[in-house]
Amino acid sequence: MSKNYVIISRPDYDAVIFDLDGVITRTANVHFRAWKKMFDAYLENSHKNQKTFSDEDYRRYVDGKPRHEGILSFLKSRGINLPMGDEHDDPEVETVHGLGKRKNRYFNHIIRHEGVKVYEPAVKLIKKLRSSGFKTSIVTSSKNCSAVLEAAGIAGLFDHKTDGNDAQELGLKGKPAPDIFLESAEKIGVSPQRAVVLEDAVSGVQAGRNGGFGLVIGVDRTGHSKDLRENGAHVAVTDLSSIKVQSSLSGTKEIPSALERFQEIADSFKNKQVAVFLDYDGTLTPIVDDPDKALLPDDTQSILIELADIVPVAVISGRDRPDVRRLVGLNNIYYAGSHGFDIAGPDQKETHPERVEEFLPELDKAEEKIRSNIADIDGAWVERKKFSIAVHYRKVKETDIKQVKKAVENVSGDHHKLSISGGKKIFEFKPEINWHKGKALLWLLDKLDLDKHQVIALYIGDDVTDEDAFDVLKGKGIGVVVMEKPRDTKADYRLQSPEEVGIFLEKIIQTQKGSQ
Fold first, then answer.
1. Exactly one of 163, 166, 279, 281 is catalytic; which is it?
2. What angle do CA 465, 466, 472 make, to 5 degrees?
3. pLDDT in tens, the chain (516 residues)
4. Start-to-end CA span in the chain (Å)
5. CATH classification of 262-312+324-331+435-515, choosing from 3.30.2000.30, 3.30.360.10, 3.40.50.1000, 3.40.50.1820?
6. Cβ distance 125 to 154 under 8 Å?
């Protein structure tokens, strides 16, 4: 697509944690050469019937892992058992420790004679991050980290490093376990949710995702973006110059109009399958005081019927799933209600995030309390959905809104298994699990076999709850926010009203008919 970049913004994250080899330094190939020389010589000497060590072997069994774990993983793939030995073994001894020392000897020989080269866009990114107030750190399974940083002249660009020596001393598990990343985050004083991980190895992106880091970026130097995304990367990039740094969202940059820039969007559709995901209230229909009166206009429904005959369409709404299905009225699309907690397709077969049913008793208790707490507040009312509770205050006097907030906070304090989110004149209680509209979008992409390079996903929404969907589409789709006034958003384009959404969808229909 034409806007294929990732934004790391200061309000969203506090730190960026980099892998070393293959992300910052051009030493991944040096490691591969050293591994290949060591393994090929060993196989030739002791297992002549075995094929030589390959690039695929390196990526699958060795890359990103602690040295001895990589050796064991590769040998196991060839059905070879080798004694561990101990750290005193000579490099020529055929033990795991011996082979590890032999590989390290080859690696250091190459470094001494050829030096260390860096990826210049990576260095520029690090400097930009630091000047924008981010902390930066290095995480690597290599025990040669200090020597490589010094040789490359970049040792001063990081607040901390956690390498293979630290992992051994602290007894940290190797990737894909998240231990080494979590140790790094702790050392620089940030929570994983507020940190970004950049990794080029499959085991590394798995570790970042397993650690619950806010954003995991896969760095594809060898054409394996799909592997990186399938194993934990939120997004994959081939060049770090496509990562943009935003120091602050105050004074938000102007988001271009999706109608004015439609040709740009249409160009990104070329040779791609388009999939359209939509919010309901405020997107397909205007926001109204009474949600029951937010009826879908006949012409908008006609547009959706035509669109759904051409491309995959799904509606992801904060409403109860049966409610939004009734309002939209199409039987051949997917619906995700309660912000994605309740999903069903044309076959009416339901699916929910794991464990969400366990929260129903807690929601029942919270509903009873909040109804009691706001009973005397004129204009406030409670809407119970299957997996959430909405507290509406659109009709509440400005002077009474504080009472609604206080009532919500009091109930929240008694129900720690539920989280609270805000929206347009609404508070919402939801199960405290890692699920939202963005997760539902990813689930639908997978379910519909649309999570692949030749598909471009488009999400249109108006609320803060839609930001999670815009976020997961970074680098793999287009986010369009519906808003009259500028606000902070992760969307790529904007529309001003549901009427403009209808016009935009009609343009998509025209482009898709023209490409058939």
1. 279
2. 115
3. 333 468 898 888 989 999 998 899 887 777 788 889 999 999 988 898 899 999 899 888 987 777 888 899 999 999 999 999 998 899 889 999 999 889 888 887 877 777 788 889 999 999 889 878 889 999 998 888 888 888 788 888 898 999 988 998 999 998 889 999 999 999 998 989 999 999 999 999 999 999 999 999 999 988 888 899 999 899 899 889 889 888 754 444 578 899 999 999 999 898 889 999 999 999 999 988 777 788 999 999 999 999 999 999 999 998 989 999 999 999 999 999 988 888 988 877 777 776 788 889 999 999 999 999 999 999 999 999 888 898 999 889 989 988 998 888 888 777 877 877 777 788 888 887 778 899 899 999 988 999 888 899 999 999 888 988 998 898 789 999 999 887 778 899 999 999 999 999 999 999 998 766
4. 20
5. 3.40.50.1000
6. no
Backbone angles phi, psi at 73, to 5 degrees: -65, -45
Dihedral (Cα; 469, 223, 228, 189), 10-degree rounding: -90
Edge-to-edge strand ranges of the sheet holding 235-237: 160-162, 135-139, 15-19, 195-199, 215-219, 235-237
- Assigned token pair, 285: 């229909």
Model pTM score: 0.49
CATH H-level, domain 6-27+117-246: superfamily: HAD superfamily/HAD-like (3.40.50.1000)
Q: To which H or E segment does residue 53 belong?
A: none
- Whether residue 279 lies in the annotated active site: yes
